[in-house]
Please model this.
Amino acid sequence: MSNGRGGSSPPSRTGTVVGVTSARRRRNPALILLVIVAAAGCLALGWWQWTRFEAVGGTGQNLGYALQWPLFAAFVLYAYRRFVQLEAEAHEPEKNSQPRLQREIPSGLLPERPIAHPSDDLDTATTEYNRYLAELAARDTKGTST
Model:
C-alpha cells in the first residue's frame, strides 16, 4: 500500500503496480527513436540555417528558418507527449460513472441534403426496365423447372 509519501505499492495480480497502468509503462522503442531522430534533425537544420545566416551571404530568410526549425522540434516532442497521454487515457478505465458527453451537430449548421425527384421520363423508363427484368426472371424460372 502507498504511504502517501511516494512509497511503492505492492504489485497487483496483473503484474503492474497499483495505480500505474501497463500502457504507461510500455513504450514503443521505434516511436521513441523516430521522435529523437526527428527532433535532432530539426535542431540540426536550425543550426545549419543559423550558420548560413552568420555567413557573408546570409539573409533574413536564413534567420527565419533558423528560428523556425527549433519550433518544429518542440512540436515533435509535444505531439509525442500528447500521443502518449491519449493512449494512456484510452486504456484507462472510466474514473467516474458519468457517461461521456455525446457531441451532436446542431441542426441548421450543415446544409440540408437534396431530395431526389425522379422525372416522369425516368420513372416510366425505370418501370419498363423493371418489367423487362421480371419477364427475364420468369423465363429463367420456367426454363429451369422443366
Residues 28-91 form one domain. The first helix runs from residue 22 to 25.
